[in-house]
Hints:
With about 290 residues, the chain is mainly alpha-helical. The chain has helices at about 5-15, 30-40, 45-55, 65-70, 75-85, 95-130, 135-165, 170-200, 200-215, 240-250, 260-285.
Amino acid sequence: xxxxxxxxxxxxxxxxxxxxxxxxxxxxxxxxxxxxxxxxxxxxxxxxxxxxxxxxxxxxxxxxxxxxxxxxxxxxxxxxxxxxxxxxxxxxxxxxxxxxxxxxxxxxxxxxxxxxxxxxxxxxxxxxxxxxxxxxxxxxxxxxxxxxxxxxxxxxxxxxxxxxxxxxxxxxxxxxxxxxxxxxxxxxxxxxxxxxxxxxxxxxxxxxxxxxxxxxxxxxxxxxxxxxxxxxxxxxxxxxxxxxxxxxxxxxxxxxxxxxxxxxxxxxxxxxxxxxxxxxxxxxxxxxxx
Length: 290
């Protein structure tokens, strides 16, 4: 059956436009949605990479998988041991071991969320240029290992809480929400710095130095309120704000500094959207920078 004149006219007016994949037309929300979609579509790869890295970490050792459970607890156990010996003074009306183990676990989580995207993207940038797997998937696979290590550390904290009879507050579920907020903020900072590190490799070294010394000015080992010269950091240091708020809601049931936490909540939302868009837009470009 022949098409009529009207159909021929419509076909003649059809215009096909071919263009390269251009991400600059995507907004921040769309970029975030696309990044999450990439990770979800490649979730099998995330699981595979996590399994590979997990096995590689103990391959060829005499004690095998035992090291995967012991080594993540080593940093926390050292600080707990020192606190039990009385090196650190009692703080925040909590047993010394609980105070230090809880804070160090949070610090290791937040600092790793900042540092890990930098090292992952740096090490897998050349590999990503040869494959179609997005860099977001490589970052997510690295976080799978971090999630496992963090879970082990929180289990140690739970054991210490039970052993010392430190009773959690009813606001513990709210503490989990603040923990999620702090993790998002740390990850956002890490993604932006990871992109900057591709162009300026000094960024990674600077971040490592800052995070290594940052533990002493974030209320992790001792409360900053105990040192008059550093007390002001509790209301401007993002990590100190999150750690203090999570500890307050977990054990005391009330926030000491609610306004700084509210400000950080707004900053975190902006940081997540900004970092998602920057990372999504720049992925193709950073693949070409070695």
